[in-house]
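Write out this protein's structure.
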Amino acid sequence: MKSLSGSMSDEGGQRRQRTIRGEVRFSGKALQTGQTVNVACKPAEPGTGIVFKRTDLTDSPVLRLDDAVFSKAHARRSTIGTGVREIQTIEHFLAALWALEIDNILVEVDGAELPALDGSSIGFFRPLKDTGSIPQPFPRRVIKIMETERVEENGCSLTVSPDDAFSLSYLIEYDCASIGREDFEITPDQDLFEKEIAPARTFCLKTEAEALLQAGLGQGATLENTLVLDDDGPVGTTLRFPNEPVRHKILDLIGDFYMLGRPVIGRVRAEKSGHRLNAEMIRKIHEKYVKE
């Protein structure tokens, strides 16, 4: 198992809420729907939280992460909202917000899914980092895990245990020679996230690709934003890391946990987990630590 460690803290140990310094925009095709989507990220007042606004709908519905608007409606991506009032594939963007410690932000989206960009988090992270963030006069709201929580299904599991930092480990196992069994552990900070996790792209097996398209998924997938893997390795591209698939799973897990709208302090261990099981754990933590 490869293990990497960093740290995240403010001066004097006092962690304050932050928002972005100015507006940041993203545009591109959505991975699952294939639609062209535009996103405008704007600063928000202290205590606002992470708020998404669907500007393409007549009533411009607002979805706030603290309201636990988690959805089970779609496989293979994380979704908030219900019915037409939803936003899909938010995990790569949320992972970037987590790494930059952004607590308050308004995200205006003119479609049902965030753009894929290159299939990783780096295209969200770098523009947000370049714009910068500012501290705000409110303390950060955090979730400190006090006792072990576990969810499992069909040989897959996700466990969160008490600890003094946010650390993650992930085991994946695929019947594909170019992936096989991969195990990776990290205690991420902003620098480690940018270098070791953010560039890792979403992936699927070549044997899955046709079935996914027939199921209406991956309409915006290309070899530029998705690793398509067979026994010999990636099709039409090269790996950014020898173990890029498990690093992307870590990326997804960071983003999924930030769907809580606040950082978690605890040790996370995933074994062949995915968005469905991640969402079950998130609901469990929200019910126990966030819901009033």
